[in-house]
Amino acid sequence: TKVIVVNGPNLGRLGVRQPDVYGRQDLETLRTQCSQWGAALGLKVEVRQTDDEAEMVRWMHQAVDEQTPVVMNPAAFTHYSYALADAAHMVGDAGLPLIEVHISNPSARDEFRKRSVISPVATGTITGMGFYGYKLALDAIAHLIG
Ligand code: DQA
Prior knowledge:
Blueprint: E1 2-7, H1 19-22, H2 27-40, E2 44-49, H3 53-66, E3 70-73, H4 82-93, E4 98-102, E5 124-127, H5 132-145
Parallel strand pairs: 1-2, 1-3, 3-4, 4-5
Helix pairs in contact: 2-5, 3-4
Bound molecules: 1,3,4-trihydroxy-5-OXO-cyclohexanecarboxylic acid.
Binding site for substrate: 73, 79, 86, 103-104, 113
Active site: 22, 102
Pathway: Metabolic intermediate biosynthesis; chorismate biosynthesis; chorismate from D-erythrose 4-phosphate and phosphoenolpyruvate: step 3/7
């Protein structure tokens, strides 16, 4: 089974962006780790990143059309993108799992990070576990589709 791992704005800067919060490992490392974690579960994982809300929305439409489960770190879109929330809702409506992941624990940070418009339409949410959260999300997907 193919799974897409989609990452929102500024996550292409992992490793250099607030390493105290997001760690010192970069997106390429996350890519390698997700592929390995997925392979061990029999999942073919494709890791994507975009700073573009429209592209992220299109990826959700594509997931529905191709029946692909989704791991999503919506980054700052988490807190305000109703367009992405509506698109994520469609993934759920299609019977596909969508696991929301945050590297940090947003509820322990700024006030504006305490609300997620994605959580209500996600199958579940994993926060505060660093890159390991993506592994937990892939485990959850393997469990949910297994
Ligand atoms: C994040 C948390 C968001 O609040 C922030 O805007 C990000 C990353 C996380 O992975 O911890 O860009 O989603």
